[in-house]
Amino acid sequence: MKRYALLWPLCLLGLNACHATEAATIDLASASPAAHVTLAQVQRTGSAEHASDGVMQQRYAFQPSAQPQITIAPGDGKTWEWTGKGELRLRVQNAMPWAVTLNLDIDSGAGAQHLHATVGLPAGPAQTVVLPLHAESPRGEGMQAPPPMPFDDRGQLTLLATTVQGAVDLRQVGAIRLSMPTPQAAQTLLLGRVDTAAGEATLHDTYAGIVDRYGQFTRAQWPEKITDDAALRAAHAAEQSALAKAPDKLAGMDNYGGRLDVHNLTATGWFHAQKANGCWQLVTPDGHAFFSLGVNAVVADGGRSYVEGREFMFKDLPPTSGAWSPFYGSGDSRQPDQGASQGIGYNHGRWFDFYAANLYRVDGDPWMDAWRTRTLNRLRDWGFNTVGNWSDASLGRAHRVPYTRPINIAGDYANVSAGYDYWGRMPDPFDPRFVQATERAVANASRDVHDDPWLLGYFADNELAWAGVGPQGRWGLALGTLRGDAKSPAKQAFIAMLRKKYVEPETLASAWGMALGSWDALNVTAFAAPVPNESHPAIAADYSAWLRRYADTYFRTVAEAIHRHDTHHLFLGGRFAVNTPEAVAACAQYCDVVSFNVYADLPQHGFDAAAMHQLDKPVLISEFHFGSADRGPFGKGVVSVYTEQQRGEAYAKFVAAAAADTHIVGAHWFEYVDQPVTGRLLDGENSHIGLVGITDIPFGGFVEAVRAANRQVSSPR
Predict the structure, then answer these.
(1) Residues 72-113 pLDDT 10s
(2) Is 277 left (phi over 0), alpha (psi -120 to 50) or beta?
(3) Is the pLDDT of residue 126 over 90?
(4) In this structure, what DSSP letter does residue 135 have?
(5) If residue 439 lies in a helix (H) or strand (E), which one and from where to where?
(6) Is 547 helix (H, G, I), strand (E, B) or coil?
(7) In angstroms, what CA-CA distances link 588 with 2, 576, 584, 608, 638?
(8) Segment holding 176, helix H or strand E
(9) Which of 10, 186, 319, 613 is most buried, by CB atoms within 10 Å?
(10) What pLDDT sits at residue 717?
C-alpha cells in the first residue's frame, strides 16, 4: 500500500510545535493544510461525516498487513512541547460490528523514549480514548484487573488506556502513532479530534466511586446485586428457608460423604488412599469410596481491601468508629521478594472488610456463628464434601464435612531463586533451620487434629517455585542454586555432589564445556552456570540429578515430620503450580497423594497425566476455577469464560473429567467468596470466581449447575 503524507496546521495542535500557550486540537476529519500525517497500509475513505452527536469524523481503513498505522508528527523537524499535560485524547468510533484492537504509541527524543498502550474498541457509538502520558496500570491502583471500558464519564463515553508502558520526554514529543496488530481483513475506524489535556482527570474519574457501601461495583447490574439492607436480609431469609428443607445427608452415603456402592475397600478408622478395581480411591474412615469435592478459602475475612489513600473509589464507607469499627483494620502486604505483590499500589494502611460487614448487616452480633452454620448447610446442599485449604478451622471442628489442614513452613532459613519466585524464593531444605521450621509448623498444624477422623490430610506450602520461566525454566532451580550466595547450604550440597561425581574440576569443566580452574571458582556468589545444550548433555543430566535431590530433601523432611506428629492422616502434597518431572516424582515417593493446582479447561490439561499414571499415584486437583466479568469484580480469574452460565457448564465438564480419571481422587474449587472489586490485600486480585458474592448471596444459576455436577459424580449410581 502506498504511503500518503497529509500536511495539516501544526498550530491547531495544543500538541504544540509552534509553542502556543493555549491548548488546541488536530482534527483527523478535516483536510486543513499542515501537521505531518502519514498513512502506512491505511486508506482514508469517503468524505468526513457527522456522528450522532454532530462531531465530524473521517473513515480510515486499516489494511491487512503486519502493522498498518497512522503517524502524526510535527512539521519542519520540530517537536511538541507537552510539559504540564497529563493525557492524550482521541475521538474514535469503531465502524466494525466487532471489537477491534488499537495500539497507541508516543515517541520522544528521536524515538529513544516510547510510551505504548493497547485498547480494545467495542462496536458501537463514538467515544473518547484517553492515554495517560506516563506509565500506568491497574496494579498501580491496587488491583489486578481494571474497571470495564468504556464508561460514561458525565455523559461522555470514555475509554481509558488502563495499562500504559514506557516513558516519554514531554518537552520534546516527536510523533503519535495509531496502529493495529496484523488485521486479517480491512478494519475501519472513524477518527476525529486529537488533543492533550492537563492533569489526570480521566484517570481519576475511571476509578472514582466504583464501589458501593456493600462492596459491589456501582456501574453494572446483575441478578444478585443488592440495593438496600432490606433486600439483603430478604435474600438471605429466602435462602435459609430453602436450606431448611434440604436433607442433611443423601441416601446411600456414609456420615463422611462416602459412597456405599463401591466395594473391596478397607475401613481403617481414618481417611486413606487405596487402589481397588483398577482405580485409585480416597476411602472414608468407615471404608467407603470418597471423591473429594472441596472448596478453598471458606473464610469470613476474604472481603478485605485497602481504602487508605484511595477513599475516592468508595461510596458511603461506614464510619471508622462505633459498630463498624471491628470491620476496619490496618496492615502491610508489601513483599519485596514476591513477584505477586510487585507494582501493587495502595498496598498498606487502613482496610475495610466488606464481606464481614455484610454478614453483620444480616445477622447482627452473632454473625460469625450464623455464617458458619449457613456455610456448612450450603456446602452439603451443593454437593461438596470437603472444606479445602485456608478455611475457617471451626468448620472442620463441627464434624459435618471432612476438612484439610495447611502446613505453612515459615522461618529464618536460607532460600534459592528459581527465577519465577511469584510467591517468593524456594526454601532451602539443606539448611538445618528449615528442618527446625518444618518441625514447628507440623507440630502446630497437627496439635489439635491428629486424632480427628474427619481430617482428610495435610497440604505443605503452596505453589512453590520448582521451576523458572521460559524454555530453560525446568533448570531454574539448578541455575539459581549455583548462582546463589557462596555460603548457601543448597549450593554447598550441589558442589559436594559434583565433586563426588567428577573428583577433579577439570573433568567437570570438560563435561560442561566451560573453564573451571578450581572448585573454589564454582563456589562464588553469582556464579554464571551454563545453560544445558546439545553439545554438553552432562549439564542437563547433572541438573536433573540435583533437582531430584533438592525435591527429595524437601518432601522427605516434611513427610518425616508429619509421620512423627501424626501417624493417621494423609500427606496431600505441595499443591504444584509450576513443577518439574523431578519434583513430581519426589512428591510421589514421599506423599500419599500428589496435588496440583490446575488452571485449565480440563484437569488432564494442567498436569502430566501420563507421567502420574506411570508413577501410579493418586492425584488431587487442589485448585481450579472459571471466572467471568458479569457479576461485579473486574477480573475473570485464571481461566475465563464469557458468562455466568458458561461458568457452570465449564465446572460440570471439569469435574466429570476428573471423576472419570482412574488416578484423580478429588477436585477443589478456588474460592468460596468473590474477591473484592478493588483487590484483596495480598496481591490485588479482584476476580469473580466465587460461589457467593461479597454480600454472601449465592450466584443462583452457577450454584445450581455446581450442585447438579457434584451429585452426578459423587452420588451412588
Answers:
(1) 988 766 889 999 999 999 999 999 999 999 999 999 987 789
(2) left
(3) yes
(4) -
(5) helix 432-446
(6) helix
(7) 62, 12, 6, 13, 26
(8) strand 173-179
(9) 10
(10) 67
pLDDT for res 248: 73
User: Using one digit for the tens of pLDDT, what is the confidence trace for 668-694?
Assistant: 999 999 999 999 999 999 999 999 999
Q: Which three cell numbers stand for residue 552?
A: 527429595
By DSSP bridging, strand 4-7 and strand 36-40 are antiparallel
| CA atoms within 13 A of residue 91's CA, in its CB half-sphere | 21
Please give the Cα distance from 497 to 171 (Å, whole number).
Answer: 58
Residue with cell 476509578: 207
Q: Are 284 and 254 in contact (CB under 8 A)?
A: yes
Residue pair 593/570 in contact by the 8 Å Cβ criterion: yes
Domain residue ranges in the chain = 4-207, 229-245+292-389+575-714, 250-290, 415-565
User: What percent of the chain clears pLDDT 70, i.e. is strictly above it?
Assistant: 95
For 497-518, write each residue's pLDDT tens digit: 999 999 999 999 999 999 999 9
Instruction: Compute the distance between CA of residue 520 and CA of residue 667 in angstroms, rounded to an integer.
Output: 49
Q: Of 2.60.40.10, 3.90.550.10, 3.60.21.10, 2.60.120.430, which CATH number belongs to 4-207?
A: 2.60.120.430
**Whether the Cβ atoms of residue 368 and residue 387 lie closer than 8 Å to each other:** no
pLDDT at 22: 32
Report, at the CATH architecture level, how domain 229-245+292-389+575-714 is classified: Alpha-Beta Barrel (3.20)
Quote the pTM value. 0.94
> Sign of torsion, CA 572 437 672 287?
positive
Of 644, 609, 608, nearest in space to 626 by CA: 644
Give Dmax (Cα) for the chain: 89
Please state, in angstroms and rounded to a whole number, the distance separating the CA atoms of residues 608 and 536. 27
Helix axes 229-244, 367-381, angle to 10 degrees: 50
Please spell the DSSP secondary structure of 269-299, one letter per residue: SS-EEEEETTEEEEE-TTS-EE-EEEES---
How far, CA to CA in Å, does 496 sit from each of 482, 503, 516, 544, 555?
12, 10, 15, 15, 21
- Report d(CA 450, CA 428) in Å as an integer: 27
C-alpha to C-alpha distances, 476 to 130, 419, 579, nearest whole angstrom = 40, 6, 11
Q: Please, what is the average pLDDT of the chain?
A: 93
